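Table 4 source record.
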Amino acid sequence: MSVVPFVRPLVGRDVSAGTNSGVSAGQSSPLGATVIPDGVNFSVYSRSASGVELVFFDREEDARPARVITIDGVTNRTYNYWHAFVPGVKPGQLYGYRIQGPFDPAVGMRFDPSKVLLDPYGRGVVVPTNYTREAARLEGDNTATAMKNVVVDPSAYDWEGDTPLHRPASQTIIYEMHVRGFTRHPNSGLSEPTRGTYAGLVAKIPYLQQLRITAVELLPVFQFDAQDAPGGLVNYWGYAPISFFAPHHGYSSRRDVLGPVDEFRDMVKALHRAGIEVILDVVFNHTAEGNEDGPTLSFRGLENNTYYILGPDRSRYVNYSGTGNTLNANHPVVRRMIVDSLHYWVEQMHVDGFRFDLASILERDESGNLLPNPPVLWDVDSDPALADTKLIAEAWDAAGLYQVGSFLGDKWTEWNGRFRDDVRSFFRGDEGSVAPMADRLVGSPQIYGYKEREAEESVNFVTCHDGFTLNDLVSYNQKHNELNGEYNRDGADDNRSQNWGVEGATDDPMVEKLRSRQVKNFLTVTMVSLGLPMILMGDEVRRTQRGNNNAYCQDNEISWFDWTLVAKHADVHRFVTLLSAQRLMAGFRPERQRQSLNQLLQEARRAWHGVRLGEPDWSVSSHSLATSVTCPNENLFLYLILNAYWEPLEFELPPMSHDDDSWHRWIDTNLDSPDDIVEWQAAPTVKSCTYLAGPRSVVALFARLSDHRRPRL
């Protein structure tokens, strides 16, 4: 094995003799920096290292450690774990590792003792103002510009009785959002230090409550490398993790080293008090260390061929994530780290669930082959500590593996990408879209029916962070990603969008009216379909990204929530608010006995119709559909009309069996606000035996029946 000479020897540099004074062997478990009486126990995994230094710092930008502790490879090593107990160390201490070992990429070894490495189990991270990713990539010492860990005592926080909420999926509405983007805009009404932070999100909780949101799904909040982006841009979304235990330093309004951890917990506690769950978008499929030309930040310099899937040429990384590398998730050490991370965020940070980015990668072995029973997924699925935790899979990866409807496990729910695509196709007026639309309305049984699971296995969404916003879906025929610096080659080409007459923003009132109607159509179907609904931050006020469908590198007004839109599109905001309220509290029982609309629909009897009762048109050229739903436990009857045709259509209504019973109009997206949606108690009566549904519109009617009478079908 060839070994590249090291820049400097490990032992004896930067400090005088005696820096190990008082240090004892400590223990291998638990991993990370663990605060115990009189000091801190440090433990890190490295199978192939020949030497390990634990380095302490007084300030994050220090060019030299304040103290270097050499971890003895005989007395302070148990199996593949290097450990030491350092007395007198307290929470807030900055630290990192320098690891000696062979640098031989041809066999997968990439040790570099000139680099300060993050602890994979570190609970806190600080980032110097002069941090540079390039210094971690090139040869030479990067101490002054390296990220450092912070010793954190998870027990040193008063949760004031807070616990995860465990809200049933049938009573959940997810709001996918970006912590920074939600309040970073200057018009957010918040002070400069608070904008774009965990504290800023707390300040806007009343807005979320008004929308009747029950769960926020936060884009990645694990510490990530914001410089992991091409051409001097920034990694705004955060899909570039470098720690699976530390909250992102840049989202804290506090400047003290323990601030990000405590401010994150303050946010979780405040959201729980408001009845809102916290779901984290977690990235266990790759890290910010990139491909073979990437920086050495942590895992690469600790045990490269353990943490990553390497190709036949061991100097190169397999790239199923599309970002340069792939985490070796089914290796026992990495599996343990993933499960330990989930435990930490649930038990110590009180989060309620996780959405797994590119979750299908977790089904691959170290050669990239698909495993029939991937250990890491069964570890998570069967873990009793995660039994009440929401687990959501993005059931595909960047290498073409697509598992919507077939993702492993009994507990997982899935982002239903086919719901997104089929609903978009239907309202665009694509041929052959009626039958798929019907299946999506009833929980996608053609996809999930064989599992005999609740409908909430399907997370229904039309838009998410990755792609067009809802406004842009109805405003652009093509993506416009030129500002990303890749000549508009990045981002999806299959958007199933339609600009309805003008590409981009317009003052044409007719185009704008149709766009708002289509936005309301998408939102209505998302909320009334069986499954777990998710809406994207800002869709309720028609937030635009100016046609950019891959804004991962746009930390500016393209991505930020523009708070002036709340007034500008007050009709859409009001529509979503009333739609959410009725979704959560359907029927006419006393409030304490009410069920969600999703629960009622699951118990209901359903029939399909076209413009004539009992005669649905399933032909390829059809663009309309109606369905009647009988909810026996609520004595309630619903009638939903979907008209994606470009002309108005008149639909027959089921006749009532008693003169005292009548239909009431809840939703008609063809009508102007406030008639487009009303509270059920104020719903106007429909006196005709037919209903004229406007072009490209959704209509929802209901009947409150007495004495268990039913309409005649």
